């Protein structure tokens, strides 16, 4: 009986490390291939002529940096027990800053891609003319990282290594920082995505059923069948909708975990309770990286145009290989 309990306890204690070694490593490899693929595809001229393509390119670059810094350091620290943020104050500050900055940059750019698609099928020309503003999209892609940089710059100053771990200054700031993170990266993200999903889903239905889409306020044009452009837009919308679903499903457990940790941080807990809690928390934290590693694969599954671009890349590579032989 005691031997069994000891074995279970050892397995529970080892579970967080194994999760970070195997699951994180799998996501890191998956994400690198996917984000490199996204950068290549969205760098294509046809996507750079569409505002949503610019936003998704910016998102892909942000995701690439995120997993190759934050996820990789997580694997080294939480999986292989190689202390990085506990020894180097500079990395401590940068990592804590990046843990909130990069995801919000990525998700905000993703949100602007959705907004662009929503605006593109509005009935009113006043709203529709704000879609596909390519020059504006470049400016927004610069403004968003700067905005979140200013908003979370306090982490670059007020986080320090204490007792071998990277923590915020104790007292008021620690509580303030914790609730800001919970509000923006936990509660704010699924709420914003749910609102965008509602409007995007409504637009998919409008395009699918061929609703009346006026060219201007005085000259409506009834569309009984979908044009090629509408079909492409509906595929993009469906692709974005599926990614929204992934972001919500992987963020809701994170919301629950952040709230639970804040509420129970001063509770008395048994060693078994702490071991189970640590395993669940590690799994939820790892799950929060799924959105940033899977967009390429979602695009391949849902978007025919995207698949053609990927196939075109392989065909070009085969042609180059044959000419160099």
UniProtKB/TrEMBL annotation:
One of its GO terms (molecular function) is G protein-coupled receptor activity. It is found in: Membrane. One of its GO terms (cellular component) is plasma membrane. It is a multi-pass membrane protein. The keyword ATP-binding does not apply. InterPro entries: GPCR_Rhodpsn_7TM. Gene3D superfamilies: Rhodopsin 7-helix transmembrane proteins. Residues 34-299 form the G-protein coupled receptors family 1 profile domain. Its main location: membrane. Keywords: G-protein coupled receptor, Membrane, Receptor, Transducer, Transmembrane, Transmembrane helix. The chain crosses the membrane at residues 20-42, 54-76, 100-119, 140-159, 179-201, 236-260, 280-301. This is G-protein coupled receptors family 1 profile domain-containing protein. It comes from Adineta steineri.
């Amino acid at each position: 009986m005691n031997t069994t309990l000891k074995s279970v306890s050892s397995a529970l204690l080892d579970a967080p490390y194994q999760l970070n070694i195997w699951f994180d490593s799998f996501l890191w490899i998956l994400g690198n291939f996917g984000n490199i693929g996204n950068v290549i595809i969205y760098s294509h001229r046809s996507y750079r002529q569409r505002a949503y393509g610019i936003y998704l390119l910016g998102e892909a670059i942000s995701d690439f940096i995120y997993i190759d810094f934050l996820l990789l350091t997580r694997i080294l620290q939480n999986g292989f027990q190689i202390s990085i943020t506990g020894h180097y104050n500079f990395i401590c500050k940068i990592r804590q800053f990046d843990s909130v900055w990069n995801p919000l940059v990525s998700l905000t750019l993703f949100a602007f891609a959705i907004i662009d698609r929503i605006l593109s099928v509005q009935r009113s020309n006043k709203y529709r003319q704000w879609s596909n503003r390519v020059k504006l999209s470049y400016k927004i892609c610069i403004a968003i990282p700067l905005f979140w940089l200013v908003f979370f710059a306090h982490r670059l100053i007020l986080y320090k290594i204490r007792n071998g771990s990277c923590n915020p200054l104790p007292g008021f700031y620690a509580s303030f920082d914790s609730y800001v993170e919970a509000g923006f990266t936990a509660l704010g993200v699924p709420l914003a995505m749910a609102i965008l999903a509602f409007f995007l889903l409504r637009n998919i239905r409008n395009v699918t059923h061929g609703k009346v889409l006026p060219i201007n306020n005085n000259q409506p044009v009834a569309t009984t069948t979908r044009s090629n452009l509408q079909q492409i837009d509906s595929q993009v919308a469906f692709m974005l909708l599926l990614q929204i679903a992934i972001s919500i499903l992987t963020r809701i457990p994170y919301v629950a975990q952040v709230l639970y940790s804040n509420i129970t941080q001063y509770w008395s807990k048994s060693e078994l309770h702490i071991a189970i809690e640590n395993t669940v928390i590690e799994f939820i934290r790892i799950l929060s990286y799924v959105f940033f590693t899977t967009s390429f694969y979602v695009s391949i599954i849902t978007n025919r145009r995207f698949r053609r671009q990927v196939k075109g890349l392989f065909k070009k590579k085969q042609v180059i290989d044959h000419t160099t032989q």
